[in-house]
Amino acid sequence: MEANNQNVDPRELYAQLQYLQNLYSQQYEYVEENLASYTIANNSVRRSIELLGSMDDVKGSKVLVSPDAGLYMEASIGDVKSVITYVGAGYLIEKSIDDARSFMEENQKKGEEVLMKLVSDKQKLEKELMDINYRMGALQQQLSGQ
After folding, report:
1. 3-class SS at 93?
2. What are the residue ranges spanned by the domains of the chain?
3. For residue 34, how many C-alpha atoms fall within 13 Å in the half-sphere facing its CB?
4. What is the value of pTM for the model shown?
């Protein structure tokens, strides 16, 4: 591949590297946004698991419930035997505390796998961007020396 680079106009190669830099930068931003979203979602699932594990502790606690936008009502938590769980695609299902906790733990596990993949993708993109920046710097020096 080095032999091919010698036959290519350095300005053209620099333009190609700029294009790749922009492309990888956009992908990097996309991965960072997804990483932030999945981190927030996974933290929310973790808090739900913790809450499901301490249902006896919250019995009798006061909570604010929002039945509609801008309206809040104070309510007391009674003896909770089941919870309504969002399972995706707009569906809610009533589950026992144990079943809901198992479901949430499985979601957390899947979320952690996605987070690990996103971190890996982010690291690969960082490496590619560093390589492109290095090559652009070398080309810039070559062009300024001509």
Report:
1. strand
2. 2-145
3. 17
4. 0.75
